[in-house]
Design brief:
Elements lengths: L3 E4 L33 E5 L2 E4 L17 E3 L2 E6 L3 E3 L8 E4 L2 E4 L1 H4 L4 E4 L17 H10 L3 E5 L11 E10 L4 E4 L11 E6 L2 E10 L11 E5 H12 L1
Antiparallel strand pairs: 1-8, 2-3, 3-9, 4-5, 6-9, 7-8, 10-11, 10-13, 11-12, 12-15, 13-14, 14-15
């Protein structure tokens, strides 16, 4: 697995998905879908927001605070997280290149961040994380023909909610990384890969890195599969 690039833009937009069971996102559903902006965060429990860990590190590997969490559909609402949790080992696998990082394969397994909000936002229903293991995720992907929906576009705004619907997972590696062909670019780090289930949408992965635009035709995007970091997230959330 080659190292790939994740861009850290220190501005936050958080989104939320509320879709019917077994409904694939489409442009007509845009008021029910989320929009994910530059280095995204996504609510997964009433006071918890998940993102990519490298979004909260400076080029010299110092952790920086989340600036603001804003909610699609509620343009006037925002919150300042009071905690940002990262794996301590993540920084060792990041090599700064301008405002970007080259993320090593080992670091890809640790590219996660968990933000705690001081209170649960009103009127927002979080999308749950995948609760099964790697094997059950593999089975669920097979049942969906390895098609998922990816939230996250650099041109998004709080008024334009977009996802890439029914894009392809190419592989779930033994290291717990989802290799995919969804339309992600630098700036989309932290956005979710979403899978429909009988219980509703589930977040199955968090976007980590993408190849340079010139190499997109031959290299997959990388997302961290939730089962890979589920024990860590569960410990953080208590």
């Amino acid at each position: 697995m080659s190292s790939k690039r994740g861009v850290g833009v220190w501005l936050t937009i958080t989104l939320l998905v509320s879709t019917p069971l077994w409904a694939a996102p489409s442009p007509s559903d845009e008021q029910q879908l989320l929009l994910f902006g530059h280095d995204d965060r996504h609510p997964v429990a009433p006071q918890w927001v998940v993102s990519s860990g490298h979004c909260f590190l400076t080029p010299d590997h110092h952790q920086q605070a989340a600036l603001l969490v804003r909610f699609a559909g509620q343009p006037s609402a925002s919150m300042q997280p009071d905690r940002v949790l990262l794996p301590r080992e993540l920084a060792a696998g990041l090599t700064a290149e301008g405002e970007s990082f080259i993320i090593s394969p080992a670091a890809s397994r640790l590219d996660i961040a968990l933000l705690h909000l001081p209170s649960a936002p009103q009127g927002i229903t979080p999308v749950p994380l995948w609760s099964g293991d790697r094997h059950s995720l593999q089975q669920a992907l097979r049942q969906q023909d390895y098609l998922v929906s990816q939230g996250g576009y650099p041109q998004d705004s709080l008024e334009t909610l977009l996802v890439h619907s029914r894009c392809q997972i190419r592989n779930l590696t033994t290291q717990g990384i989802l290799e995919h062909r969804c339309d992600t670019l630098p700036g989309d780090s932290g956005s979710p890969l979403l899978l429909p289930t009988r219980q509703g949408w589930r977040v199955i992965g968090i976007q980590s890195s993408a190849p340079d635009p010139a190499n997109r035709w031959r290299a997959d995007n990388l997302a961290l599969a939730i089962p890979t970091v589920a024990p860590l997230l569960n410990r953080w959330m208590g």
